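Hey everyone, long-time lurker, first post.

I ran two proteins through the pipeline my lab uses and got sequence/structure pairs for each. Pasting them in order. The first:
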Amino acid sequence: MRAERAILCLLFVTPLGRLAAQRAGSRDAGDGLADARHAVAALEHTRMLHLPRGAGQPGAARPCPTRIGGMCHWPEDENAPPPPIADPAVAVARERALSLVDSASREVPENRWLEGQRVALAVASGRKTQAIAAARNCTSSAAWCAELAGYALDEAGDYM
């Protein structure tokens, strides 16, 4: 009976203790990383919910040129029409994710996932200069940082 009470106390006290600490403003070093991961997951969920409709689907603005599984792929050559503009909800989710990833990268430096997300989200937001700066500020392994820089520079059209 005593052990059962101790377990019940832990179940009730531990979450309340965490909640009180959060309300007091204290955060663990990993909280920012967890927030960033949740924001990126929410972005991907939002993006999937708001994918443009393809050929044969109700509400399709224009036909899907190439379907791969359930996804529509638009070619990237210069003669191809541009892909449809993303839903504003996706842009809002991307901005939130980028903000939280930026904050978390200051809390948890040298995290490869955060560094990669900073560059990828900046590219996806059309902020090529910010992507290049994020890649140049990379503190992980030299190879990883070089890959990020190559990606950011390529996306910015800087082929050296």
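...and the second, right after it:
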Amino acid sequence: MYHCLSCLPNFGLYENSCYDTCPNTYYKNITNWQCMPCFTGCSTCSGPNEYQCNSCLLGFGLLNNICYYPCPSTYYLALFTCHTCFTGCKTCTSQSNTSCLSCIPNYGLLNGSCYSQCPDTYFLNNGICVLCSFIGCKSCNINNCLVCMPDY
């Protein structure tokens, strides 16, 4: 069994062996030809810094060469990558316009979608579009009907 102390150029030393490609979570340092640890969450990387990830470990999402856990606000995780949510979503489960779990400020959630203005017969209350409780009301707030439907 070989017990290496150093490697030829282009090979990385890892646990007393020389590798053409360093194992996952390590990168090849070309200054000393050693396999060095990637930043937390990186499966493969080009260096030790947070912004040098090429792919992520399970549960982490890659965005602009950084592995996030969880993905930042307005992004969702799919296939080790952070993807943009549909417009208005703060948190979501996919790119679909009905996959929102919460909305950015001044948007209202209704049936998995975020609205910049709640549909008729609904009003915005704490980030949720709430059905008006007044019969025949087209537009309301929590206390009053503001605009009636035709014929009311």
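Reply from user beta_strand_b:
Welcome! Quick read of the second one: The chain has a mean pLDDT of 94. The domain at 92-152 is CATH 2.10.220.10 (Hormone Receptor, Insulin-like Growth Factor Receptor 1; Chain A domain 2).
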